[in-house]
Structure formats: structure tokens, C-alpha cells
Specification:
Number of helices of chain A: 12
Number of strands of chain A: 9
Radius of gyration of chain A: 19 Å
Shape of chain B: globular
Low-confidence stretches of chain A: 306-310
Shape of chain A: globular
Number of strands of chain B: 21
CATH architecture of the largest domain in chain A: 3-Layer(aba) Sandwich
Number of domains of chain B: 2
Distance between the termini of chain A: 26 Å
Largest sheet of chain A: 5 strands, parallel
Oligomer: heterodimer
Strand content of chain A: 5-15%
Strand content of chain B: 15-25%
CATH topology of the largest domain in chain A: Rossmann fold
Helix content of chain B: 25-40%
Number of domains of chain A: 2
Largest sheet of chain B: 7 strands, mixed
Order of helices and strands of chain A: HEHEHHEHEHEHEEHEHHEHH
Low-confidence stretches of chain B: none
CATH superfamily of the largest domain in chain B: Metal-dependent hydrolases
Mean pLDDT of chain A: 91
Structural class of chain A: alpha/beta
Radius of gyration of chain B: 21 Å
Bound molecules: zinc ion
Strand order of the largest sheet of chain A: 7-6-5-8-9
CATH architecture of the largest domain in chain B: Alpha-Beta Barrel
Distance between the termini of chain B: 5 Å
Chain lengths: 310, 429
């Protein structure tokens, strides 16, 4: 692996992404076994440092760590304690003093994981930093797409919804572009970041055209608080213009893969029936999330595959 | 850096005098006696004279900075008038204007008097800028007349804009009675929202909340229009965007009451430098794109920008070690100023050294109405001695400020301050 940490997918080498995906598939196989555990990271200690509540991501990482036989500690800090005076540096140095091997961090501020690498020697894995990146989510999304299609190069992926406030979108854009996929963004123009086309993606506000074009839709969660900043007039309007509804999909007679990073707002960005339909691979993404995170931890922490397997 | 009292007689020998007022550079010695310039040229000296070798060096007016934050009163942990003075001397500055966003703000004749009294003991000249509105709250004008009588030289709510257009109109109109500059920190806070950097491809890459250049230029445009309406004097601080420059350039054609300053950091850095999330580069207004940076250089050359001011803004390590959203806006800039602007403007963009020195001496003094006759027999020696060509790397050890929040640490500099002579003292670097 070229990089010691996984902070984001910007400038992350295609070879390394491919290695992670390949490794994820071998771990997925482990996860299908009756005894779902390998000793690869025996004796390694990993801290899950979450400054923001994210039960799903934390559980996924925790499960990945347990399956690899690593020792894990969960550390839920609140950013309000940071505001009260305990500095980010204190938290980092406390961790370092505990002689750990890696930190998985979720933080509301862009750049916080990079900041952490300056204060500690352990390996840092970004589990989401504000509106910046969420690289492990993008890798599990790519793993799921690869599993479904058998390739990424030339695949047509549409990302639907609030791109501006989404770390998932940005990491997916970086990763998918690196792997040679085509990406189109579709969402309200107030929620498309400026100059995003410079990253080699297209923007199209017409959801029906986008559906016709795409091989897969990655549907993002729409947060109700976006209506306060004047980004969105109403959920009804959003659903009319961008909602992935049963009715809309029925007008497009085509095979389409539907993804969602969760948690789903059923009846908002996506209809319940669509989320539960055969074309949705949302639950598969969840299992691939564990396998992908196992692969990332394994490759970054230098475990040995096959060692003591069975 | 060490600061010592000048001996009775001081002989600056072998240097070249760059006179930014007469626009000349001549090889001449200077004799200083009892802190005042006694003679030029072939000076006769006694044995006890303190001789300072200035071979290969330029001797010129002490630099003047119209925009510094010395944090006194209220945040003496970040900077005091004394520590700020040392930072100034290290950067060749003998005279500064301090911004009023202190705690309490410098918004009354009493606080102006306090700063003036305190600065008597300092090794540089410190002029307070008074707040435009009481408590910098934007609701009521301060007692400008009384504050001027106590020593205020201009008015600004810096750190915050005067958002209310009627209030800004009144401030400019009221200021006409005293012919003093009104300095407005131009940022439309509604458009800025929670932006912490310039809106562009880099902010999109980094996922940081950002604000567009219009955040500045819209308010600059408003202020320029209000200046025409009222006949007031406007000084635009820390201009950062190409769009603001367009407005200022146009306005200056028909209005001679407008001046503008640029900071070393807006000339030196671009938003690309924020890729590493260095909180020391978090400033307001933000570091902008390479095309803005080029436009600033052009505007220096064509006179749209009148002077260089550092916006020296000290913050504690603890605050700046925080994450990007929580870290305060601002960076220090006095010590690194000359090496940075001389590199960008003289070395890389062929500006004359003489013109650069004017941007640091005569131009800012003209804006404030300070004395510019500094190279004359009988005047108090207020001089800076510099090496215009020394290449060096700025390091933490070069910082005299109480705070260390400088993104210039590790950067290559061109040109360096050697001595600063002021108020009967000499500081050597
Ligand atoms: Zn300001």
C-alpha cells in the first residue's frame, strides 16, 4: 500500500483500491463460513474514536475488527468537550500513550484525520470527516458494484441527492474516477458544490435522463434541516424532482442497481418498495462494508492472510 | 533579537540610503547623535562612536503598518504592546496602527488614552484606531471627536464589518468633519455563512464550508458607493479578491478619497496551500485563487493598491491547534513581511525595490497623515536597515510575537531586516 493511513480517496492509487476490493472478496468468503473469525490481527489494538454518533459505521468497523481477532476499544468523545477546553491534541496524545496500533476516527470537521496523524504515530483510518471524505464507504460501494458487475471501468454511476453536504459523494467521486467509472451527479442545484465538474464528473438536474443513462444509482440521504438554509423548499418538491419512487422507476423499463449508504429516509429520497426491491443491493452493501473494512484494516495493519486459517 | 539603547554617537557606515520620498538611492553614511540624525556623507566621529557596518545594506525609512492586532487590553496571553513592538522591530516596522477589536474594544476616549499612554514605554510608535461603533456592535457611533483628541488616527470595527448600510453611511459622513479614514472589514456575513475558506475547486476538494469572493467585493462596492455619496474617506483593508480590485480601480478614477491595502499573505499564498488543512492559513478574508493572487500583484504595480499592511493577528497555539472549524481566523505577519513581499513583488514580479519600500513607508504614512520627512538633519532616527537580497528560510526562531501562528514558517524568503533604529534604540537581528 502506498499510503500508511487511509484519510481519503483523493490521489489514492488504483492498484491499492483494487487490492482492497480483492481482499474484501476473500474476507467476504470468511464471513459466509460458520466460524467467521480469522486470527490475522491477533495482538493488534484498534481504537474507534467517534466524535459523532454513527452507530452503523462504528458497528461495521467493530465487527470487522473482531472478525480479524484485533482488540478494540470504543471511545466516544463529544465535540462539545473539545469546545469546553480539552483540546483535540490532548485526546490524540492520550490515545498515543495507550500504545495502540490504529485509530478509526469519525469527526465532524474536514481535515481532522490528517490533523490526527500529526499528533500520533498510529495508523489513522478516516471513518468520515464532516463534509470531506468517507473513504471506507466509497470502497464498500465500489466492492458492491464490482461484485454486481464484475468491472468498474466504464461503469455509469449516478449519485443522487445532497452532494454538497456529503462525504460519501466526494469519496465515491474520487474512487470511481480513479477506477475509470463515469459519474453523473443529480440533485438540487443548491446542493451541488461549485466547480465539482472539475473533478471529471457531469451534473444533470433531470432525474429521468440520469436514470436512462445510469447502470447504478447511489441514492443519498436527504436531511430535513437542509430546508432551513434555503437549500430546499420542501420534501414534496424534492420527491417530485429527484425522488427515486416506484412510479418513476416503473416508467423506465431497464435494469438498474440501486444503492444507498444508509440510514434510509424511507418515503423521502427513496420509496420503501424500491429500497426493498430486488434491484436494491443495500443490504449487500452492509455485509460488504464489514468485508471491505476487514480488508482495509488487514492491509494497513500488516496482517498475514492465511496464517492460522481454519 | 536584541534591543539596546543607542550610544551617544552612532555611525551607519558603508550603506546605501534609499530615500522613498526623494526617490533616490545613494551611497552615504549617516551620523546619529542623541537619537537624532546629525549628518550625512563623510561624517566626522569621535573615538567613542558606535560604528555599524552597513556594507551591502540598504538604509531607509522605518516601516509603517496600518493594520495590526496587539490584543491589548484583554488578550495579553496572545500579544501585548511590548511583545507586538518586538515583532514589529524584527520586521523593520517602527510605527503601527492597532486595531480596536480588543476586550474591551477601543471604543472610547479613555481606552484611546490608555493605549497612547502605554505605548510611550514601547520601543515603537503605536497609534490606536478607534472603533466605528460602540462595542463594535454596529448600533451607535463612537465619540470620534473626543477619541481623535486623545490620539486616535482612524476608525474601524475590524474583525467585523459594519453590516448596516445606514450606519456605514453615517460613519463616512461623520468622518468628513475630521478628514480621517474609515476602515471597513468588508465581508457580507450573510453570504459568508459558516465559510472558513474561499469557495472554489479547492474548498470542494476539501469539503470545507466556503464563501465566494463576492462576500468581499459586494461590500467593497457598497462602501465605495457610500464614499461618493457622503464625500467620506475610505480605506479598504486587506483586499483579497480580483473583483474587489476592479471596483476599487474604477472608483479611484473619479474619487481621490479611496485608498486600499494588501497583506503579505494574500500576495504570497493561494487557496491551493490549504490542501494540508493548516489552520494558520485560516484568515478573514480568506486566501484566494492563483488568479486573485496575480490580480493583487498587478494592482500593486498599477497603484490600485496603495500600501502593504500585515493584519498581524496573534492567536494562541492552543486555539490554532484545534480543528479547522474551531480555529480562529488570523495569522501573525510582522516578522515575515519584508522577506515575503520582496520575494513575490521584487524577485518574482520585477517591482522596483524603491516602489516596494514606498508601499511600506511613505504610502501608509500619507494615508494617516504621519510625518514622512525622516531622512533629514535633526529628525529622530526612525530607520530600517535591510539586506535586499539575502535568501533565507523563515523559522519559529525568527518570531518575536507572543504567538506563533505563522504559515510562513519553513517558507523561502528573499531579503531580510538587519537593524531597526527607533526611539533611541537599535534592534539587531
Ligand atoms: Zn479585518
Amino acid at each position: 500500500m502506498k499510503h500508511r493511513h487511509l484519510l481519503g480517496l483523493k490521489d489514492y492509487p488504483a492498484d491499492d483500491i483494487k487490492s482492497i476490493i480483492d481482499t474484501a472478496f476473500s474476507f467476504k468468503e470468511v464471513l459466509e463460513r460458520p466460524i467467521k473469525k480469522v486470527p490475522s490481527l491477533n495482538g493488534k489494538t484498534i481504537v474507534n474514536l467517534f466524535f459523532e454518533n454513527s452507530t452503523r459505521t462504528r458497528i461495521s468497523f467493530e465487527l470487522a475488527q473482531k472478525r480479524l481477532s484485533a482488540d478494540t476499544v470504543n471511545f466516544s468523545a463529544s465535540t462539545s468537550s473539545l469546545k469546553k477546553g480539552e483540546t483535540f491534541k490532548d485526546t490524540a496524545q492520550n490515545l498515543e500513550a495507550m500504545k495502540i496500533d490504529a485509530v478509526v476516527m469519525r469527526h465532524p470537521t474536514p481535515g481532522a484525520p490528517l490533523h490526527l496523524t500529526k499528533h500520533i504515530d498510529s495508523i489513522v483510518i478516516n471513518a468520515g470527516d464532516g463534509t470531506h471524505e468517507h473513504p471506507t464507504q466509497a470502497i464498500l460501494d465500489m466492492t458492491s458494484l464490482y461484485e454486481k458487475f464484475g468491472y468498474l471501468k466504464g461503469l455509469k454511476i449516478a449519485i443522487i441527492g445532497d452532494i454538497s453536504h456529503s462525504r460519501v459523494a466526494l469519496s465515491n467521486i474520487y474512487g470511481l474516477k480513479t477506477m475509470g467509472a463515469e459519474v453523473t451527479l443529480c440533485g438540487p442545484s443548491t446542493l451541488i458544490p461549485p466547480f465539482i465538474e472539475d473533478l471529471g464528473v457531469k451534473v444533470n438536474y433531470n432525474i429521468d435522463e440520469v436514470i436512462d443513462w445510469a447502470d447504478a444509482l447511489n441514492v443519498l440521504r436527504i436531511q430535513r434541516e437542509r430546508m432551513h438554509g434555503g437549500f430546499l423548499p420542501s420534501i414534496r418538491e424534492y420527491r417530485n424532482l429527484f425522488g427515486i419512487t416506484t412510479e418513476r422507476l416503473s416508467q423506465h423499463k431497464k435494469e438498474l442497481v440501486i444503492m444507498h449508504p444508509g440510514p434510509i429516509n424511507r418515503g423521502v429520497e427513496i420509496d420503501s418498495a424500491v429500497a426493498d426491491s430486488d434491484q436494491a443491493i443495500i443490504l449487500n452493501q452492509v455485509l460488504n462494508g464489514v468485508a471491505s473494512r476487514m480488508a482495509i484494516l488487514y492491509l494497513l495493519l500488516g496482517g498475514k492472510l492465511g496464517e492460522g486459517n481454519d | 533579537m536584541n534591543l539596546t539603547k543607542l550610544k551617544k554617537q552612532v555611525h551607519l557606515s558603508g550603506g546605501q540610503i534609499l530615500d522613498p520620498l526623494a526617490k533616490t538611492i545613494t551611497k552615504k553614511d549617516i551620523l546619529i547623535e542623541n537619537g537624532k540624525i546629525k549628518a550625512f556623507g563623510n561624517v566626522k566621529t569621535s573615538k567613542s562612536v558606535q560604528k555599524i557596518d552597513c556594507k551591502g545594506l540598504i538604509i531607509t525609512h522605518g516601516f509603517c503598518d496600518l493594520h495590526v492586532h496587539f490584543r491589548e487590553p484583554g488578550r495579553e496571553d496572545k500579544e501585548t504592546l511590548e511583545s507586538g513592538s518586538m515583532a514589529a522591530l524584527a520586521g523593520g516596522f517602527t510605527r503601527v496602527c492597532v486595531m480596536p477589536n480588543t476586550n474591551p474594544p477601543i471604543d472610547s476616549p479613555e481606552v484611546i488614552r490608555y493605549i497612547v499612554d502605554r505605548s510611550e514605554e514601547c520601543p515603537i510608535y503605536i497609534h490606536p484606531i478607534g472603533a466605528i461603533t460602540k462595542g463594535q456592535k454596529g448600533n451607535e457611533l463612537t465619540e470620534m471627536g473626543a477619541m481623535l483628541a486623545e490620539g486616535a488616527v482612524a476608525f474601524s470595527d475590524d474583525g467585523l464589518p459594519v453590516t448596516d448600510s445606514a450606519m456605514m453611511r453615517n460613519a463616512l459622513a461623520y468622518g468628513t468633519m475630521f478628514d480621517i479614514p474609515i476602515i471597513n472589514h468588508a465581508e457580507d456575513l450573510c453570504l459568508k455563512q459558516d465559510g472558513v475558506m474561499h469557495e472554489g475547486i479547492v474548498s470542494t476538494n476539501l469539503g470545507l464550508p466556503s464563501s465566494p469572493d463576492l462576500t468581499e467585493s459586494n461590500m467593497v462596492h457598497r462602501d465605495l458607493s457610500l464614499t461618493l455619496l457622503t464625500g467620506g474617506r475610505l480605506h479598504v483593508p486587506h483586499v483579497s479578491s480580483s473583483k474587489s480590485l476592479d471596483h476599487i480601480r474604477l472608483s479611484k478614477k473619479s474619487n481621490d478619497k479611496v485608498t486600499a491595502e494588501v497583506t503579505p499573505h494574500h500576495l504570497f499564498f493561494t487557496d491551493n496551500d490549504l490542501q494540508g488543512f493548516d489552520t494558520n492559513l485560516k484568515v478573514a478574508p480568506p486566501i484566494r485563487t492563483i488568479s486573485d493572487q496575480k490580480a493583487l500583484v498587478e494592482a500593486v504595480k498599477d497603484g490600485t493598491l496603495d500600501c502593504i499592511a500585515t493584519d498581524h493577528a496573534p492567536h494562541t497555539i492552543e486555539e490554532k491547534e484545534s480543528t479547522f472549524d474551531l480555529a480562529p481566523f488570523g495569522m501573525i505577519g510582522l516578522e515575515s513581511c519584508f522577506g515575503a513581499v520582496n520575494k513575490v513583488l521584487v524577485k518574482e514580479n520585477n517591482l522596483n525595490l524603491l516602489n516596494l519600500v514606498q508601499l511600506l513607508t511613505t504610502k501608509p504614512r500619507d494615508i494617516m497623515g504621519f510625518n514622512n520627512n525622516l531622512l533629514d538633519i535633526g529628525v529622530h532616527a526612525e530607520l530600517t536597515v535591510l539586506d535586499p537580497k539575502e535568501e533565507w528560510i523563515f523559522s519559529r526562531e525568527d518570531i518575536q510575537s507572543k504567538s506563533k501562528n505563522s504559515p510562513f514558517v519553513g517558507q523561502n524568503m528573499y531579503g531580510r531586516i538587519k537593524f531597526t533604529i527607533n526611539k533611541g534604540h537599535i534592534s539587531k537581528l
